[in-house]
Amino acid sequence: SGNYYNQGEIRKKELEQSCCVLGIPASDVTVIDHRDLPDNPAVEWDTQLLATLVLKHIEAKNISLVVTFDAGGVSGHANHVSVHTAVRYSVCTLLWVPPWGCRVLVLESVSLFRKYISFLDVLISCLLPRDALFILTEEETEQAKRAMRCHRSQLLWFRHLYLLFSRYLVVNSLRLL
Length: 177
Description:
The chain is α+β, with helices and mostly antiparallel strands and 177 residues long. It has a domain at 40-109. It has seven helices and four strands, in the order ααβαβααβααβ. The protein has a four-stranded mixed sheet with strand order 1-2-4-3, with helices on one face. Helix 3 (78-93) links the parallel strand 1 and strand 2. GO terms for molecular function: N-acetylglucosaminylphosphatidylinositol deacetylase activity. It comes from Dryoscopus gambensis.
């Protein structure tokens, strides 16, 4: 629930506002508030527990595409890495072959240099191997920035730099899991 600084309720509302900006109705937003899955950048979550919760959600919502972090978690955040590990465990260890044809795309973590060269990374990303490449239009980039600004409780100084320079607001390269 994003309760690292005891701001879980605030961050839930911010998430709903952000999703609204992106055109995602509140009814499609699920917040998991589980005592064994604390919001903490230093805590790795239990793989089997998280994998079970993810699979139940995929089945309940009849989801056909999952986009998740890669093993680096994009920012190295232990919770993000745990999500990747749980999804990978679901697919590989449990031999998960969903009958509904759900695919999993993994967002590529890039070097610090590439992470903050904004639209210039489009050229690099086009030349490197990947399974999918999403290049946002200027309008989509502005929408993504508006959505990010909804997360006021998390907008520390370095996240303002992220809004200005991050390639992830312009281009995202992904691989099939």
